[in-house]
Each structure stands twice: as C-alpha cells, then as structure tokens.
Amino acid sequence: MKKAIVLGAGGFIGSHLVKNLKNDGYWVRGADLKLPEFSASAADDFAQGDLRNKDFVENIFDQEYDEVYQLAADMGGAGYIFTGENDADIMHNSALINLNVLDVCKNNGIKRVFYSSSACIYPQVNQIDPANPNCEEKSAYPAHPDSEYGWEKLFSERLFISYNRNYGMQNRIARYHNIFGPEGTWNGGREKAPAAMCRKVAEAKDNSTIEVWGDGLQTRSFLFVDECLEGTKRLLRSDVDKPLNIGSEEMVSINELAQLVIDISGKNLTIENIEGPLGVRGRNSDNRLIRGRLNWAPSRPLQMGLEATYAWISQQLESAKLAG
C-alpha cells in the first residue's frame, strides 16, 4: 500500500485531498494545527500540531512516504489578505512552515514535495484590465504581486526550486486559482468569493438585496475542488519541474458570479455594490501550458460547482438555525 502525507490536512483543500487519496487506496497521514472543521478527517493517522515547530515536522516524517503534499499556509479570502492587518502573520507563518518542511524532507532523503502556490503571485500590472488579464506562467517576472500573501508564495516557489537545484530534489509547484466547493470556510472573514456569495444569497429574504464589494466588474475564474485535486495529483506525478497554473479558464465578473448564485437559489434578489477590500481588477487561469505538459486541463462548468456549494452552505445555515 502506498503512503502519502498531507500537510494542511485540516484545511479545505487538504481535507478533500485526504479523502481523495484514501479512495485511491493510499494509507494517509494528515497533519495540521487544527482538525477539519466540517467533517471528521478520513486520514488513517492525523497528527495535530504546529508545522511552524520544526520538532513537530521532524516527528511526523518518521517513515517513508510515496507522496508528500504541502498545502499548509496562513490564508483567507479578500477580507483577510487585502486589509493589511494580517501581513506579518501571513508572511512569517507560511514561510516558516515551508522552510521546516523542505529542510526535514531534504534531510530524510525525500526527493519530491508538492507545493501549493497561488495565482496571487502574478504582477498586478498584468491584471489591470478585467477583460484581458495575463496570467501566463512566464509572466510572473518582473515580479510585483498585489499582496504580501502573493510575495510570500513567490518567495516559497523560489525556495522549492532552489532545493531542486542545490539538493537534487524534484519538487512540483502549482499556482492555484480560487479553489472552492463544499466544506470550505463560508463565514467569519476568511471565506472566498463563491462561498461568500452563496452565504449571502442563502441568508437573503426574497425580494431583498445582497452586497457585493467593489463595482462588481472585477473578474476572476473559480475552480471546483474535485478538479483541483485531479490536477494536483497529475502534477506531482509528472516530470514538470516548473510552476503550472491549476485553475479554470471560465472567467466571470464578481457581479456575474453573484447573479449565478441568485439564479441557482430561485430567489428574486438585487445586487448592491459597496466599498470593500479588493484584489486585482482581473484574473483568469491560462491553461495552455498545463494542456501541453499534462495533456489535461479543468473542464467542469462553474455553475455545477456553485450548485453543489450553494446546497451545502444552505444546509449549514439550516443546521445552525435548528441548533440555535
């Protein structure tokens, strides 16, 4: 039986990845500061501890693993990343985790680690026009991300690549584009746009309004978690030694995203655009390189993922109401 370890297994993508690998027949150890919030972990073993603590990282690498996935990071949606209030924590915590994981893996003879970077590394100057953002992989330099979160992710990409170059490792790097789905954070300030829209619409009474930050013309693409996991595994097991986008090319404005969720709900709601923290004006995954190198790219329509996510968040709200 093959063995895998998922770092960040208490988070949204990590908890889904654990289930996915278990379905593939792997023995899986999860590790994180916290357990998954919305369901029990499917891991065979879950080590709960702080990945910023090198002793903890050394303890969980007490055996050989066929696959290592490093997803752990200090992160959140626009309300967490773009206010500036969390910059020091974001940079310190995530960088320290990556430094610990890489050093321990190198010292234990582990050659390949998957690292989840982010589309937030792309220069803000290339994402000014919401209709024509440039997120081709090679456009990352000259570097000018729009947040400290993006700068830390870019630094860590270079860290993983440096270990490839200096220590003969074969680390693999994905630039995730707005991953969403059931069992993701949906309230509290760290939620991302799809979950926030689903919550706002599910909470709204018919013939009322929902608030959307900014003018709503800013664009993004959003990738359902199942396709993210497929791309993640394919990239780790490939010979691609450069960062690759893992995201959807179905770009929508934030107002269009909100309207999609409204349509799914069947409610009659109006969008009210208000001031709020924003990122770049436009961002969309460029999937030419992943198609060429992996002969695969995400293809699930956004609406399918939103339907599943809206149903799940509505259920969460209903359960909270009954419990209250």
Shape: globular
Question: Helix segment count?
Answer: 10
Rg value: 19 Å
How can the largest sheet be summarized? 7 strands, parallel
Detailed description of the structure:
This protein is of the alpha/beta class. The chain has 2 domains: 3-179 and 222-246, Rossmann fold (3-Layer(aba) Sandwich); 185-221 and 251-281 and 301-323, UDP-galactose 4-epimerase, domain 1. The protein contains 10 helices and 13 strands. The strands form 4 sheets. The chain has a 7-stranded parallel β-sheet, sandwiched between helices. Helix 1 (12-23) links the parallel strand 1 (3-7) and strand 2 (27-32).
Provide keyphrases for this structure.
UDP-galactose 4-epimerase, domain 1, 40% helix, 324 residues, 13 strands, globular, alpha/beta, two-stranded parallel sheet, Rossmann fold, 10 helices, 2 domains, 7-stranded parallel sheet
Quick summary:
By secondary structure, the protein is an alpha/beta fold.
Would you spell out the secondary-structure blueprint of this structure?
Elements: E1 3-7, H1 12-23, E2 27-32, E3 45-48, H2 54-60, E4 67-70, H3 78-81, H4 87-107, E5 114-118, H5 148-167, E6 172-176, E7 179-180, H6 193-203, E8 208-213, E9 219-220, E10 223-224, H7 225-236, E11 244-246, E12 252-253, H8 254-265, E13 269-274, H9 288-294, H10 302-323
